[in-house]
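Please, does this match?
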Amino acid sequence: MQDILVKTRDGVATVTLNRPQAMNALSRRLQAELYEAFEKLTADDSVDVIIVTGAGERAFSAGLDLKELSGQSNEAADGAVSRGGDLVKAMESCPKPVIGAINGFAITGGFELALACDVLIGSVNAKFADTHARVGIMPGWGLSQKLSRLIGISRAKELSLTGNYLDADTACAWGLLNRVVSAEELLPTCETLARDMQSCDTEMVRNYKRVIDEGFAATFAEGRRIEVAENRAHKNDVTAEGVARVQQRGRSQSAD
């Protein structure tokens, strides 16, 4: 792989978009490599949590590589976008928690890539922008639907219909970022969060993530039905010994 870096330590994989000279723009090769990385990490039983970030402090990702796309026919450009759709689907369908470490600009396609993560932590350098309306491209990776559900429809319209930038502190106040930290503390903060997730029962974390996602995509009433059905199915496998084992694991990892 040339455009991304993957490092795994103690069950936490850090995936870095590695085109800092191009603000980590999503070239076709980067998209293909990121898709391949998520396929492998999803299948790797030794990996519990995945962190996604960008190289350097300037950008998480500036979105699709428009210089690359401008040299293609419309048909070729559409093909690149469709492969990107597969990439986002691969991230969304990953059963393991995915933490987005937003180190700089997350613009349009890069914004959508961030929204494919489960939790977003931003550095003080993080900035978001949806410039689809400015460049004349309709989003296809979920931004038009996800953003309004995260920050409210009026705020989402303000961002998407102007193309204006959203700074880190405002993004946190609006509920897009979980928290804002210094650039130096970004990855350590994400790694600590990943360890907290690891301290929980692995199978439970993955099932819980799935229930949350399925319920979020449904009505509230349907989401409650999903939760109740999962609760009843899960109760059949709960034993006092199993609960004690999980609690002991959590205490051991907290002590470490």
In short: The radius of gyration is 19 Å. Confidence is low (pLDDT under 50) at residues 73-82. The domain at 4-198 is CATH 3.90.226.10 (2-enoyl-CoA Hydratase; Chain A, domain 1).
